[in-house]
TrEMBL record:
It comes from the Bacteria. Gene3D superfamilies: 3.30.530.20. SUPFAM superfamilies: Bet v1-like. It comes from Polymorphospora rubra. This is ATPase. InterPro entries: ASHA1/2-like_C, START-like_dom_sf. Residues 22-152 form the Activator of Hsp90 ATPase homologue 1/2-like C-terminal domain. Pfam families: AHSA1.
């Protein structure tokens, strides 16, 4: 089974990314929701400051520290949580405040692996295309590669 990130554009307002992981769904869900796990893979595996209040209405803020000394801050709010199955959250890159997308993550167990499908819904096509042009897919692929490496340490 391929573990390559698959990207699709189901509409002018959406981007869907799907990735398979060799780990149980409960573990893959946990590494998406707990600070002690997120700091090992989110942000492409770079050092990460994590503030997270994982509950409906709770908020998060992640600050990625890049090797060149830069930092990138992201924030959002959790709108829906179905444990081990689904998370709906907002996502905003702080330097682009006001350009908020809604992201739905779905976790499915298939043949001993977990498939994560993330659908990002933007306010308009310009926001979607701008995010894609900024390197959204490459950043997600690097983060999920870091997640793969991290999951192996938890086995």
């Amino acid at each position: 089974m391929s573990h390559k990130l698959v990207t699709d554009f189901p509409s002018d307002l959406e981007v869907t990314m799907t990735r398979t992981f060799d780990a149980p769904r409960e573990l893959v869900f946990a590494v998406h929701t707990r600070a002690e796990h997120l700091k090992h893979w989110w942000g492409r595996g770079n050092p990460l400051d994590v503030e997270i209040d994982f509950r409906v209405g709770g908020r998060y803020r992640y600050v990625e520290h890049t090797p060149d000394g830069g930092s990138h801050a992201f924030r959002g709010e959790f709108r829906e949580i179905v444990p081990n199955e689904r998370i709906v959250q907002t996502f905003e890159y702080e330097p682009m405040a006001g350009h908020i997308l809604e992201e739905t993550l779905v976790f499915e167990e298939r043949d001993g692996t977990t498939v994560v499908t993330g659908t990002s819904r933007f306010a308009d096509k310009e926001d979607r295309d701008g995010m894609v042009a900024s390197g959204m897919e490459a950043g997600a692929a690097e983060s999920y590669a870091a997640l793969d490496r991290y999951l192996k340490t938890l086995a």
